[in-house]
């Protein structure tokens, strides 16, 4: 059996570890693996190389993706998707593993629906914005990076009795902000899923200062507001000194954490087992600590729900 493998959309720490797991499992089962460069863009241009055991040596610890990645506009129209499917057919590739986020899964889903290509989706995005899985690859590393940065900010904010407004990524999903906020002890998080009220923010800060706090951390999700925008609104309502930090693409790099490496190993292994069993197009994920798979079309169509219980937890314990 010949299979293709690509990484698509924004990169995420753990993608390399997943590539390794896919390639090694496929070789274990005697499959031929083609590593496609630059995501769907490379597929359309027929840019691929056969991979062997050694192609994936020394990458488990590296962020980024050795296959490189791209956001491919051509996949948004049928002509582009037709080209992608015809390259697979010409090469005799029977299954395609796609490591990426929501947009990449939509590309895989269309190849399945329109051209009957067997695709397996591995959720690789720092955003954690796919409902069918509790965690996506890269989310844990990104949040741990943020925690380290907030730890450092806390030192200097405390010395100067300032408020730190820290902007994190996540597109339209507040999970990175929610988990960063809880795990770093931020007093306030601002997420796209919940409207914020500046009076309430100021009331919480005042209360914390009266109880003896010298500084505050506010984590803002990029999908809700920019750090600059939020800080300028805050400055209109308080006299506290405010400083902003936008963490940006630092969140997308770095050596993956244990949690992401474990997910990568299991997701990659499962993806190939599914292709071998010819289960049709599936998305691999994790639910309640168990590796799961489900129809890729259903997976893409599920709407991400925000964890209000965790949000309330933060409200109760951070002050
Ligand atoms: O989807 C991952 C992500 O990092 C988002 O959190 C962010 O909004 C976006 O990608 C940034 O995209 P780019 O790397 O193209 O600037």
In short:
With 319 residues, this protein is of the alpha/beta class.
Description:
The chain has 319 residues and is of the alpha/beta class. The protein has two domains: 2-138 and 256-301, Rossmann fold; 140-253, Phosphofructokinase domain (Rossmann fold, 3-Layer(aba) Sandwich). Helices cover 44% and strands 19% of the residues. The longest helix has 22 residues, at 139-160. The chain starts with a strand and ends with a helix. Residues 10, 101, 125-127, 169-171, 222, 252 line the site of 6-O-phosphono-beta-D-fructofuranose (F6P).
How would you summarize the topology of this molecule?
Blueprint: E1 2-7, H1 15-28, E2 32-36, H2 39-44, E3 48-51, H3 78-91, E4 95-100, H4 102-115, E5 118-123, H5 139-160, E6 162-168, H6 175-184, E7 188-190, H7 198-210, E8 216-221, H8 227-237, E9 241-246, H9 258-276, E10 282-287, E11 290-295, H10 296-301, H11 308-317
Parallel strand pairs: 1-2, 1-4, 4-5, 5-10, 6-8, 6-9, 7-8
Antiparallel strand pairs: 2-3, 10-11
Helix pairs in contact: 1-9, 3-4, 5-6, 6-11
Bound molecules: 6-O-phosphono-beta-D-fructofuranose.
């Amino acid at each position: 059996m010949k299979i293709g493998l690509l990484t698509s959309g924004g990169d995420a720490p753990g993608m390399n570890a997943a590539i390794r797991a896919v390639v090694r499992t496929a070789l274990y089962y005697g499959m031929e693996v083609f590593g496609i460069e630059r995501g769907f863009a490379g597929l359309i241009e027929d840019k691929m190389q056969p991979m062997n055991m050694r192609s994936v040596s020394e990458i488990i610890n590296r962020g980024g993706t050795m296959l490189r990645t791209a956001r491919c506009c051509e996949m948004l129209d049928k002509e582009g998707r037709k080209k992608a499917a015809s390259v697979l057919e010409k090469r005799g590739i029977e299954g395609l593993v796609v490591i990426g986020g929501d947009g990449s899964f939509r590309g895989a889903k269309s190849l399945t629906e329109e051209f009957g290509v067997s695709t397996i989706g591995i959720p690789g995005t720092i955003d954690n914005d796919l409902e069918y899985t509790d965690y996506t690859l890269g989310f844990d590393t990104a949040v741990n990076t943020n925690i380290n940065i907030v730890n450092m900010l806390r030192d200097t904010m405390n010395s100067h009795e300032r408020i730190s407004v820290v902007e994190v990524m996540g597109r339209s999903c507040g999970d990175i902000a929610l988990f960063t906020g809880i795990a770093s002890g931020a007093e306030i998080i601002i997420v796209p899923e919940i409207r914020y009220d500046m009076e309430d923010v100021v009331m919480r800060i005042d209360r914390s200062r009266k109880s003896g706090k010298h500084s505050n951390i506010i984590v803002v999700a990029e999908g809700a507001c920019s750090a600059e925008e939020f800080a300028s609104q805050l400055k209109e309502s308080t006299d506290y000194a405010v400083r902003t930090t936008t963490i940006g693409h630092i969140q997308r790099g770095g050596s993956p954490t244990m949690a992401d490496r474990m997910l990568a190993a299991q997701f990659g292994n499962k993806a190939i087992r599914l292709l071998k069993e010819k289960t049709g197009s599936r998305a691999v994920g994790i639910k309640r600590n168990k590796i799961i798979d489900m129809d890729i079309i259903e997976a893409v169509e599920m709407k991400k729900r925000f964890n209000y219980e965790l949000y309330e937890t933060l409200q109760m314990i951070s002050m």
